[in-house]
Amino acid sequence: MGKIYKWGVNPFRDFLLNSIMFDVDISERGAKQDINSAFTYILQNLLNNEKDALHLDFEIKNKNDHYRVLGNNSVSALWLSGIIPIDTESALKNNSFTVKDRKYTYNSKKKTLTYTILKN
Question: Under DSSP, is residue 118 helix (H, G, I), strand (E, B) or coil?
Fold first, then answer.
């Protein structure tokens, strides 16, 4: 069973879900440009250095009306997950980032972001 969706937690998911609710095929080429512009705007308002938004790189896949949004680098994967690292360059370089008790690791071959819970 799935989790209950909570609005306002992740602005990227909120934007995508809202687009889908208005019958936008977010995997369509023209839509991706609009989504990229919206995501860049969101990032410029969240990041300490708005120029870091240049690292935004993602793709959206649609298979049988099931969308999959993939970050093409570690910071894009973090951003799309609603995590804004303080040191963008370090997260990009190391493909990992720690928040509280979780260490996030990006696999560039599979384009997946996983986390492990760190023991205190």
Answer: coil
